[in-house]
Amino acid sequence: MTISKALTIAGSDSGGGAGIQADLKTFQELGAYGMSAITAVTAQNTLGVHGVYPVNIEGIVQQIDAIGDDLGTDALKTGMLFSGEVIEAVSERIHHYGWDNIVVDPVMIAKGGAKLLQDEAVRALKEKLIPLTSVITPNIPEAEVLTEMKITSLNDRKEAAKHLMDMGAKAVVIKGGHADDKEVIDLFFDGTTCEELVSPRIETLHTHGTGCTFSAAITAQLAIGMTMRDAVLTAKEFIRAAIEDEIGIGAGHGPTNHWAYNKRGEK
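Structure for Hydroxymethylpyrimidine/phosphomethylpyrimidine kinase, as requested:
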């Protein structure tokens, strides 16, 4: 029996809706054995983040080496990498082990608009990590920071995707949730195919962890051997189900439903 393995290098969310908790749930639901290297511990729930406690560089590297020296991985994703030093260390270890199927969720802009990465970290992301990337999955504000361009139209998104490809990414998904469109239009570009992935906009408060979950779904699908396009399409269906079939827990912005995709298949 062949076991497909997926690694997440990201922060921990004590509320379970985002970060490594969302990633591991998603890996499990989509048939990949999940592993993690934690970059920071957060105290958070549906009402917000109440504390952030970074793991030191040595601790992050040792976690990655523990995976690389024994288990290995078929795909990995990065989430919250909060400093240039962390980004450089993670990039070096990815290069050291020769890993591919690298999914980068560039967690840079908080939902309230706060910038989560300093300028030196953005530079490290562009110079060190993006050139190793199989697919990068920014939302529109994150794509604006990375490309240093204003994105107000679908054509702008296409231009931004080309810029990200020029930085070294092999494929790009620019998520459309932040746009004012009546539907959500995610743009997929791999240098050959430029495809608009359209889905209904769902009115709900329970969207915590959508970016983490979407990128984790891509990672799991790449780990089990799917093509990039098919991995992205499955991830789109996975996150749509997770948002639509809400579980409604917590007093604030609740988590998505990581069971939904497979439970729909059981009906």
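Residues 5-266 form a domain with the UDP-N-acetylmuramoyl-L-alanine:D-glutamate ligase fold (CATH 3.40.1190.20).
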